[in-house]
Give the backbone structure.
Amino acid sequence: MPWRRIGLLLILLSGGLMFSSTGLSDHGPGHSGACFGPTSTEEAPLDDWTVVIDPGHGGADPGAVNEGATEAEHVLTISNLLREELRGSGARVCQTRTEDEYLSLADRAAFANRNDGDILVSIHLNSFLDPDVNYTMTMWGSGRAERRLAEAVLRPLETHLPETPEGEETTINASRVAQFTSELLREAEMPAIIVEGTFLSNRWEVEALEDGQWRHRQIASAVREGIVAYSQRPPLVVRATLPAFEVVGFGLRGLDYWLRESGTESARMVSSGMYLLSGWEPLNLFGVEV
Ligand SMILES: [Zn+2]
């Protein structure tokens, strides 16, 4: 029944497109979001990538506060430094806010969607009642690509943040990657993560963050390094055990793709190589990787 299958494909595709255009129509109240072209002059690792940076909180929402220092202000500084580093690495960078401005999570996701981000990285600083706690963390929502991005960005954070650039010890002594439910991660149509760089509530950390921009730069450099590592992941590989299938298209979020059986009209939609829409059998049995 090839035609019935094609009909189902079209329904799935048009559902995806309608979802996309809902995002386009929501411009939200923010006005300071902007995109910036690359500044690299030679071939660079992030050529052709659009990275959306989302400095958390802002405006009426300061986020964590410690001794007058606000998360909103410090994550904007980190984000501005990260933006320039990524542009130098070849990326087009879109930033949800460039000023101290309030944006809802839906505004932030809509901004990322309408600017066609390849990935979204939301920058935060953590907070806890105990002022001795300090570790670095990344969070992902769903899907294999998103988890891989969270792990790729965590690695340089855990390597670089336990020491100052001069080699002195900081109070960072652990790292975590966690799955997290958030409207921002759920509504973004691309791999999206939250970075909780360090704890603003930590007594050593707040002093470091209030002492110029060296700590901000350290966090930004680590995040850039993680994004570059993620971007260099091997391209989609369909192993030799599956010669009869070819990839015929990609779906939303870059996690879904269509496979077609050679010589037939039959195609399947696969999500992250693990989940399958519309009742076909799981394709990870065939060794498909993203
Ligand atoms: Zn936050």
Remarks:
- The pocket of zinc ion is lined by residues 56-57, 63, 71, 124 (CB under 6 Å).
- Residues 236-289 form one domain.
